[in-house]
Amino acid sequence: MRSGRGGRRSAPAGAGRGVPALSRMTVRPRRQAPAGRAARLSDALRASREALGDIQRQLDSLLEAIRSEGGQPEPDAPERLQRATRRVGVAVERLRQEP
């Protein structure tokens, strides 16, 4: 009687794939970004970091105002936070556009 499993068959000689000219493990040297692109990317990263830092400061200020005795943030706080949020959006969009 045969069991439910079939035996493994080996591939006929010469039927296997050859080794590719360049192995998948080949490490290629990293290409450097062109000077103009690197400068634009650096500027975009700096702008996004500054914009995120501005949001952090705005949120810290709001939290401090809410926790204080009066519990009232400055009247223009929501507008400042909204402007900071827009700046982050613009900065992140600049990063997305960099190839």
Structure description:
- The structure is a single chain.
- The protein has helices at residues 35-67, 77-97.
- The protein is mainly α.
- It has a domain at 35-97.
- Helix 1 (35-67) packs antiparallel against helix 2 (77-97).
- It is elongated and about 85 Å long.
- The mean pLDDT is 77.
Quick one: biggest sheet?
Answer: none
- Fraction of helical residues: 40-55%
The ordered string of helix (H) and strand (E) elements is HH
**DSSP E strands, number:** 0
Structural shape:
elongated
Count of DSSP-assigned helices: 2
SSE arrangement:
Layout: H1 35-67, H2 77-97
Helix pairs in contact: 1-2
In summary, what is this structure?
The chain is mainly α and 99 residues long. The chain contains two helices and no strands.
Short descriptors:
99 residues, mainly alpha, 2 helices, 0% strand, elongated
